[in-house]
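To whoever is covering the structure queue this week,

Two jobs came back overnight. Logging them here so there's a record in the thread.

Job A:
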Amino acid sequence: MSLAEAKYGNASGAYMNFLKKRKWHHSLNSNSANPRPKHRPPVGKIAAKDTKQADTPSPTKTPQHKMSYAEQKEHEKLIKRARKAVSDAEELISSIESKIAEIEQTMATGEYNAELFDKHAKLQKDLDNAMSQWELASMDLDTIIG
């Protein structure tokens, strides 16, 4: 009769089967000084070294400076403003392009006059300016996001 059977009686049958499957039953039957199963990780100085190495994050994954709550909120506001500037520039470009397309359609029907050419030239300049604004806003957003 083993120590576990003597200690727990017949009710320990399922428990003993569990221990035998994991080869831990020797710890209950033997009087050895180290009843620890062989497959468990070591405890002590070696384990402490292993956990320190595992717990320390790599320098490439952690940022140099963790932001405070206020800094995070300010950063989020900057990102939101930059995204809005990009979106506004895109909407402006779209509206100018649609106006240019209307003028070009009118010109395609054979209607030519100096006022139409001047309006088309002005819209082209406005489009170039809007494209520059969009480019700057996109670069600002990329810089903020990092």
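Job B:
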Amino acid sequence: MGLFKPAWQGDNKEKALKAVEKEMNQNILAEITENAPLEDVRKEAVKKLTDQSLLADVTVKSNDEYVRKYAVGKINDQAILAHISNSCKNTNIRLMAAEKILDQEKVRTILTEIVKNEPDEYCRTKAVSMLNDQTILADIAKNDSSERVRLDAVEKITSQTVLADIAKNYENTYIHQEAIKLITDPEIIQDILADIVRKDKTDTANPEYLVDTGNSIFGMLGV
């Protein structure tokens, strides 16, 4: 017993791929995606997987990044996608799963949690790119530890009142300048200019903020 191992477990690529091509058992294909020593063999096995539960297991258990991503790309079951996006330890896989969820309320909750708790800047940026909630984006624009993430959040804000609040009350140079660039309402622009004058007279803002804000607005007006 155990003297003969399946061809997919060997290092002969041609034989291993032929074994995968002939294999129809979904459980064995799932095993191949996790345990085959050759990368190309694992890839071919996951391409033949259709069982949603097995694809979910592969997404969580496989050490092969390509296999995990390919597996989640084949999952359509909404309950399974929600489970992966909530519990998978790999944030990139969570984001991929979230992109396929139809319930936007669930997606918003998942993305907000990722932005608040994920240490990786790239993953937070990706989550921000998928968000549309103006209140959440405003909070990210004001409070995220990464300036890149904050800028990305500002760029997705369309609410003029939210942009005005950031422009008037957030003194990070790049953030408030970006907010000002996106303001198109003339009354809001006038209000920000009036706020600059008020702060200048009462000395409630640092000079750099006043100059930068004024220059940004005047630049928009072609002055």
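Note for Job B: The chain is about 75% helix and 0% strand.

Please reply-all if you pick these up so we don't duplicate work.
Q.
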